[in-house]
Amino acid sequence: LLRVCYGSSGINAEYGGFRLAPPGIKSRLLGMTTSVKVKAPVLGGNFGTWGLTFAACDCSLIYLRNKEDHWNSILAGAATGGILSLRSGPQAAVTSAIIGGVLLAMIEGISIALTRLGAEQFKPVMPTLPDAA
Predict the structure, then answer these.
(1) What's the pLDDT tens digit per position in 52-100?
(2) Terminal CA-to-CA distance of the chain, rounded, Å?
(3) Torsion over CA of 33, 38, 44 and 47, rounded to 10 degrees?
(4) Is the pTM of this model over 0.70?
(5) Rounded to whole angstroms, what are the CA distances from 85 to 78, 117, 132?
(6) N or C: which end of the chain has fewer CB within 10 A?
(7) Within 10 Å of residue 32's Cβ, how many Cβ atoms?
(8) b/e string for 95-118 if b means 16 or more Cβ within 10 A?
């Protein structure tokens, strides 16, 4: 995912545009802005491709497993990483699949932790009744 999104765009565009511009802060900022504008469609296209592939894998797993749980997202992340790297060969596909699965597992783990943390504040509390003396 990171290689797909940031391999030729993103932070590299900002840094490259800033560093390669003529001296002077105004021209460097203009160079950085121009570089980002030029590479933004590539970044958007790569992210869209990743999102479409991930959604297709996630929905397919929901259909095949008849369950909607965190494992679908993790497996879809692994499948997406592998599918998008198939053109680079089997070793790259397996490596990207592992990275995609691990990244989605971390995201889902954080999601579960935040959900449990947020649920703590909504647990019912036994009201204390004043003593009727």
Answers:
(1) 999 999 999 999 999 999 999 999 999 999 999 999 999 999 999 999 9
(2) 67
(3) -90
(4) no
(5) 11, 36, 72
(6) C
(7) 19
(8) ebbebbbebbbeebeeeeeeeeee
| Measured distance CA(117)–CA(111) in Å, rounded | 10
Quickly tell me which residue has 């070793």 as its tokens. 91
Closest alpha carbon to 4 in 51, 60, 59, 43:
43
Looking at residue 60, its amino acid is S
Structure tokens at 19: 């560093």
What amino acid is encoded at 97 in this protein? A
CA dihedral 27, 31, 33, 35 (to 10 degrees): 180
- DSSP one-letter code for 22: P
Amino acid identity of 18? F
